[in-house]
Design a protein that fits this description.
Layout: E1 2-3, E2 6-8, E3 11-14, E4 18-21, E5 26-28, E6 32-41, E7 56-60, E8 63-64, E9 67-72, E10 78-80, E11 86-88, H1 94-100, E12 111-117, H2 126-138, E13 145-151, E14 155-162, H3 165-173, H4 183-195, E15 201-207, H5 218-228, E16 232-236, H6 244-257, E17 261-263, H7 267-282, E18 285-289, E19 300-306, E20 315-317, E21 321-322
Parallel strand pairs: 12-13, 12-15, 15-16, 16-17
Antiparallel strand pairs: 1-6, 2-5, 3-4, 6-18, 6-20, 7-8, 7-19, 9-10, 9-18, 10-11, 13-14, 19-21
Helix pairs in contact: 2-3, 2-7, 4-5, 5-6
Length: 327
């Protein structure tokens, strides 16, 4: 969720989650935009494509919301007019300036942040893990941007967000194995970076599982992702039953943010998990809306309904809601 705030002489939060340093000045941003990505599947688990904005009803605490923009997969976002008609969101449109800091390209494709565990738990499968990530990066849609981060005790930004696949792969190949594992520290910092980027973004965690060095709790990190609208996908190289605590946490983080969790011990299973994520990204819907007046300052429940008769049998996977940030 892109939100605005009031901060003097410090950090000013602007629309799209961007931050500017305020020197002896006060900035106020009134942008209060929700970016909501979700998938729709039928009773057999197959993706349902081709739905239109008129097929959806978005409720927040039971209050009907007006969709501002709509997109499917990696297609450009479409602006929704008052009469329900759609038109391309162009860079010179006033709405584009509000939604994406003046550039509609921010709402084309997905900003993918890959967080790679390089701790000592990963020594045995390190090279195979790199290969699986590299295959995933190469196969991303042309419109997507990707960043590669690595972590052990500390986070390393191996490749900043880019559409240059070669640059991303170079950063990946330069990663080195570390020592202890501070997964949730690294995930929190990654989410903070992702929150600064307008448009649609996801975080993919590739990890062995156990965390023995973080200073933050996993549920606190999960809440940040939930509030910012950033789905988290987790690929664990452990068996689901070998570490019940990590498995439970991974499943909860993924579910609460609208992502998925995978357990993939072998290289082949890891490749399959990445392929599943890539397919998910290409078949997701993304809508934005400015929340209608709502006195609730706590957790706001989001309900995505499909209004067609066929839609009653469909399943929507999305984050359950968010907590608004105080202005």
């Amino acid at each position: 969720m892109a939100r605005g705030g009031l901060i003097a002489g410090g950090l000013a939060a602007l629309g799209g989650g961007c931050w500017l340093l305020a020197q002896d000045a006060t900035f106020r941003a009134s942008v209060d935009l929700v970016v909501l990505s979700f998938t729709v599947t039928d009773s057999k688990g197959k993706y349902v494509n081709g739905l239109k904005p008129s097929d959806f009803r978005i409720l927040e605490d039971g209050i009907r919301q007006k969709i501002s923009t709509f997109s499917e997969g990696n297609r450009p976002a479409m602006q929704i007019a008052a009469d329900g008609s759609m038109k391309p969101l162009l860079p010179n449109d006033p709405e584009a300036a509000k939604l994406a800091a003046g550039t509609s390209e921010a709402f084309v494709g997905t900003n993918v942040f890959v967080l790679f565990d390089t701790s000592n738990f990963m020594y045995k499968g390190f090279v195979y893990a790199e290969d699986a990530i590299a295959d995933f990066v190469r196969g991303l849609d042309r419109a997507d941007s990707v960043a590669v981060y690595t972590f052990s005790r500390n986070l390393s930004r191996a490749a900043e967000l880019t559409q240059d696949r070669g640059e991303a792969l170079l950063g990946l190949r330069k990663s080195v194995a570390g020592d202890s594992t501070a997964l949730y520290n690294g995930l929190l910092l990654t989410l903070r970076d992702a929150a600064k980027v307008p448009g649609r973004k996801v975080v993919i965690v590739f990890s062995n599982g156990p965390d023995n060095a973080s200073m933050v709790a996993p549920d606190d990190v999960r809440a940040v992702a939930e509030d910012e609208g950033i789905p988290i996908y987790v690929i664990s190289t452990n068996d689901v039953g070998s570490d019940s605590i990590s498995s439970s946490v991974f499943r909860r983080i993924a579910t609460r943010t609208g992502g998925k969790a995978y357990w993939a011990k072998t290289w082949q299973k890891q490749v399959e998990a990445f392929e599943s994520i890539r397919e998910d990204l290409g078949n997701s819907y993304t809508v934005t809306y400015y929340p209608a007046a709502n006195p609730n300052e706590g957790f706001r429940k989001i309900d995505i309904q499909i209004v067609t008769d066929a839609g009653k049998k469909y399943r929507v996977r999305a984050r359950p809601g968010y907590r608004p940030r105080a202005n």
